[in-house]
Amino acid sequence: MNLQSLKLIVCGTDTDVGKTIISALLVQGLEAFYWKPIQSGFEDGGDAHTVQKLINLPKARILPERYKFKAAVSPHWAAEQEDQLINSQNLKLPIGKQPLIIETAGGVMVPLTRQYLQIDQLKKWMLPIILVARSGLGTLNHTLLTIEALKKRNIPIIGIILNGPLHPDNPKTLEEIGGIAVLAQLPLLKQVSSEVLAKQWKKQKVCERITKQIKESL
After folding, report:
1. Predicted pLDDT at 24
2. Residue 70 and residue 78: Cα distance in Å, rounded?
3. Region 130-138: what's the mean pLDDT?
4. CB 68 within 8 A of CB 39
5. Distance between CA atoms of 131 and 122, rounded to whole angstroms?
6. pLDDT at position 187
7. Contacts of 49 (CB under 8 A, 6+ apart)
8. Annotation marks residue 36 as catalytic
9. What is the pLDDT of residues 142-178, one digit of tens each?
10. Average pLDDT for the chain
11. Domains with residue ranges and CATH for the chain
């Protein structure tokens, strides 16, 4: 299957679950462009800078943020602190046939304004979602609630990538109850680099699993 024009959204089930590392994994593995439409908090250059640094990504493959706020808080509040308002009309998908990984600002129910949730924007985009979730305690509740919210709105989910120490049961339980495939289980890495992510990509056959899930959803 040709993945050259594939566009995927990376969304987390909670804060700090590893969306940016998984985004880097996918950008490198699919030779994709990277886009973080809304960035809240950029003391270290923001997530685009992190992805670029992790995998030595050329700047030409990083699309500029549409909104960039200083405070590392929910986008709606970060915008308000700078007397701004996030407008969904400014979040239209970039034009282009290149593969694209879109990293959201937080989870599906995060407010972009006080009347507009991130899941409302996901519904507008209607692109396949890859959920990033913690591997351990608490992930079942958070992940299953996220799956339920997306399914209720008929937003397609390609699969789940678990991040953290390998768990003996959670992947099986998520697949059985959530009905969504676990694409990969990224273990706790001592260091993250282009080489380390490339090994995980190949070892876990992530591309093949994504292709399989897309084919089955057609």
Report:
1. 97
2. 7
3. 96
4. yes
5. 13
6. 94
7. 42
8. yes
9. 999 999 999 999 999 999 999 999 999 999 999 999 9
10. 95
11. 12-217 (3.40.50.300)
56-91 pLDDT, tens per residue?
A: 999 999 999 999 999 999 999 999 999 999 999 999
Catalytic, out of 7, 36, 92, 123? 36
Element (H, E) at 157: strand 157-163
Question: Is a pLDDT exceeding 90 seen at residue 131?
Answer: yes
User: How many CB atoms within 10 Å of residue 98?
Assistant: 15
Tokens of 10: 């990376």
